[in-house]
Design goal:
Distance between the termini: 41 Å
Number of strands: 5
CATH topology of the largest domain: Methane Monooxygenase Hydroxylase, Chain G, domain 1
Strand content: 15-25%
Radius of gyration: 17 Å
CATH superfamily of the largest domain: CarD-like, C-terminal domain
Structural class: alpha+beta
Helix content: 40-55%
Shape: globular
Length: 159
Amino acid sequence: MFKVGDKVAYPMHGAGVIKAIEERCVDGAVTKYYVLLFEMGGMKVMVPIDNSTDSGLRSIIDKEECEKLITYMQKEQEDEENNWNRRYRENLEKIKTGNVYDVADVVCTLTSREKEKGLSTGDRKMLTTARQILVSEIKLASGKEEREISDTLDEILNN
């Protein structure tokens, strides 16, 4: 169980902080919720505590894991699906897992594709979303500024 102040990652949203634990009465049943605040976009999300693990809520990575992630992103990219629809579904599934390495894969492969062939509007939007999710977790985990993280990612991905 998480507590107020814990830094967590939530699939499709990125990293945030648990600001409160609240009880709400829904259909006559009292349910406890984690109240998450995401720095990027200032969004607030309530996640039922009872199914928080099933929904993919997890602790963010630590500083050491940030370094491993950066190293991981420097590896050679695998060929990606050419069929737009299939590629989009595969990338969306990776982002939905909430796994930071899966999100990094999406960022790496779409950035590589962008350099080689350009991106469709859907791919470009997915790249932006995946990159925001990735940056938000690295920022909370490392304590670095967003600009510094973006510059590091640009350096890695544009080589």
